[in-house]
Amino acid sequence: MATKASRSAARVMMAPAVVLLLGWMLVPLTMTLFFSFKKYLPLRGDSLERGLDWVGFDNYIRFVSSSSFWPSVQTTLIMVGGVLVITVVLGILLAMLLDQPFWGQGIVRILVIAPFFVMPTVSALVWKNMFMDPVNGILAHLWRFFGAEPVLWLSDASLASIILIVSWQWLPFATLILLTAIQSLDSEQLEAAEMDGAPPQKRFWFIILPHLSRAITIVILIQTIFLLSIFAEIFVTTGGAFGTRTLTYLIFQRVVDSQNIGLGSAGGVYAIILANIVAIFLMRIVGKNLDA
Amino acid sequence: MSLRKLLAAATALTVAGGTGAFAQTITIATVNNGDMIRMQGYTDQFTEATGIGVEWVTLEENVLRQRVTTDITTKGGQFDIMTIGMYETPIWGANGWLVPLDDLSDEYDVGDILPAMAGGLSHDGTLYAAPFYGESSMIMYRTDLMEQAGLEMPEAPTWEFIAEAARAMTDRENDINGICLRGKAGWGEGGAFITAMSNSFGARWFDEDWNAQFDQPAWAETLNFYVNLMNDAGPPGYSTNGFNENLSLFQQGKCGMWIDATVAASFVTNPDESTVADKVGFALAPDNGLGKRSNWLWAWALAIPAGTQQEAEAKQFIEWATSKDYIALVAENEGWANVPPGARTSLYETPEYQEVPFAQMTLDSILSADPNNPTVDPVPYVGIQFAAIPEFAGIATEVSQEFSAAYAGQQSVEEALEKAQALTNDAMEAAGYR
Amino acid sequence: MARATSTQRKLGTTLLAWAVGLLIFFPIYWTILTSFKTEAQAISDPPVFLFFDWTLENYSIVQERSDYMRFLWNSVIIAGGSTLLGILIAVPAAWSMAFVPSKRTKDILLWMLSTKMLPAVGVLYPISLIFVEFNLLDTRIGLVIVLMLINLPIIVWMLYTYFREIPGEILEAARMDGASLGKEILYVLTPMAVPGIASTILLNIILAWNEAFWTLNLTAANAAPLTAFIASYSSPEGLFFAKLSAASTMAIAPILILGWFSQKQLVRGLTFGAVK
Fold first, then answer.
1. Per-residue pLDDT tens for A37-47?
2. pLDDT over threshold 60, residue A1
3. DSSP code of residue C274
4. Which of these CATH numbers, 3.40.190.10, 3.90.180.10, 3.40.50.970, 3.40.50.1970, describes B137-296+381-430?
5. ipTM above 0.95, yes or no
6. Cβ–Cβ contact A208 with C under 8 A
7. Given pLDDT bands bounded at 50, 70 and 90, which one contains residue A288?
8. Which residues 75-94 in chain C show a CB within 8 A of chain B?
9. Coiled coil located at which positions (chain A) (predicted)?
10. Which of helix, strand or coil describes residue A54?
11. Which residue on chain B is closest to A264 by alpha carbon?
12. pLDDT value at position C275?
């Protein structure tokens, strides 16, 4: 169907986006790779103009052999995984609930999607101070009201707290996509199943869930991309303390706190590798689902 | 909307950037502390007098550090004046990144700056940043609670007394904690406190060959003492409390004692903000009979990054903001208790200021701090609650995170010290010290 | 009988849905409410919900300290500009992917998404150095470009999924009539794609508005948007819950309002091709 002319036209039209993204990817990536093989300590007076010393794979070895490396990978995976599980499970339930007829659908929908509009810095600040503060936070008030000892959210349950904050922000996104998918479900099919006497669980597992699989994959894919680089929520709440140091945050500490650009760049390369492993894995699934 | 309209709109919007910043405007990066925010209120007077406009970039401390450090190391040149501290100034000055402040006017009277402050803000005898305010740390305590406990605060207490008093004042039923101390991770937060405290226990960060010293008994002693004290008499969740958290606890009357920056004195005695304003006493930071107190020395200072186009204007601003006249201006409008403290000798010679309850104790605390000789055993570094080497901020942030995890009970003190030892040596090796 | 159960069921669903909705919304409600309290009321125990002296004091303090309108304007320009620029570049790309697919289309699409996985902190130095080199620091145009590049993959993908749902026969017909490529896009495709483009624009304005790493690190005074505005209200000295709430409300209000007015668009549009 596509003629030669339209093919070349298509290429021309795609060019700006592809070229820009290629540049956006390659230029910083090349610089990061370059720095990662160099000793680059700006506070010690190292600079590009003066020339940087080649140190081979030193930075790479040092970054992985640091005692913080594996825990940070683990933290990253737990955080991303935790948020994904919470948002997908609650998102499905919420989408099914919002799909039912009830009074005030429009308003409830607005209430549910609102957190998505809140900037991460603001939501982290609000949760940290006004909710999770062990003395003045509203959760502490609530716990005391029931005679319980307030939970020290950001030190005793730090990772869970951050997962909670991030899930709150991303739940609307998951719900929205899943809701749209549920709404497209053929109601006749469901009714037929109901007629046949299929119990609700069966209807869920055999009709609704398979129908949602594509939407779920997309939620997982998009969220993973954003979650892997989560930063503000950690920076504001714990600053990486109490086992909340993700790979991204570890790199931040190496680059900004320690001002060791070489080491941080090596970490950046590892982060890219990790992201791509996750990406390949995800894209296999999505790729399949996109064709289906 | 048609494509053409879209295009036009996008172009118009993007071209609109890049305006602003006319010749007579300086941009200042600063921290969101009370004294700085007060200064912003008076900038109009500076602009009126000189015709120089001022753009403020006010950021929270951690964000500020991140911003200005990146800007200075990449030569971004976004700021004409940066608010930095005693840690950054000598390091940046040594790298030639700051404009030396060696030609300030006579009426500015550089000699009036407290020697301890001028010393900490210089490199090789050249001043690189002018102190806006200076601080040490001291004990702030509730006179009423102390009395209730049947104790009397000596002017220069020991840690032993502090521990006893803290436990005696603690009243969990009524939400009163005997003592509030920083435990929050971060080299400028809990890290600063525990380092200053460790000095009085005879601990040090490095020996003279730059070997980490966390495997020495003095550190274990410091940390165990701190953890036991805070578990018995500290507020819940102290491992996430920094200066601001403790300040608000103290102002709400939830702390018996608080050892922290001397500048806090004006906030806790201000009846507009503090519920305990008339019941606060002051004492020197505690010691352990080893000859070193656990007080630190710090200044928030204004410095000019080298390469700015507005050097002369920036200098003019610094001379205005850190002058005697500025102090007088604040005193006139807000009272003597609210002037920026700890920077100038003449302030402490002003009779009106001597009547401010915390003035003398602040000065005594500042004078008793010696950054060149901070520890019991000799060390190769300068600085009390920090070591003025470029690697310190990174290392100390990680070390203090290990400590905070120990405060929260997630690991033992021994484990924390072991990790601190390993990561410090590793980082020092990476930087080529060992 | 059936009607009674369905009414009963609807009532139950209503109660449950409202409870969940209010619970999710509560943090925002609480922030807005606290912004009208005094600092002392903001931390009072037990918390006060409605019966307190409503005050606008916090807003005037915040406004006095920092010129809200300037930050707001920068946010509007940066979020709007980067989205429009992104749409301009993405529409042709998405069009060609959707209507002239080749074997590599899907790979290109997935590759584009993978560029989003570059951790921002890892390239802080490279990007800063580039910005210094090209004098882009603290300019709106610099941020417009960066945010456009960050969100471009998402824009392309969203548009691609919308365009794919447009039946190809219509385009064929237009082509038969001798319409040129440009006209084809302008008169045939665009009207059909408007809902999709609209929700893409919405989502990207939200993403750009809330981006807090580059907007904070690459700006000082001139181009600083609301993310920088909020950075001066996190944990200052003394009590700050009420002031923080006021600043937070000011930072999120515009986008919240935009989001609410366009929620139908978002609900319908945010599919990423999840629905076939």
1. 999 988 888 88
2. no
3. -
4. 3.40.190.10
5. no
6. no
7. low
8. 77, 80-81, 84-85, 87-88
9. none
10. strand
11. B394
12. 63
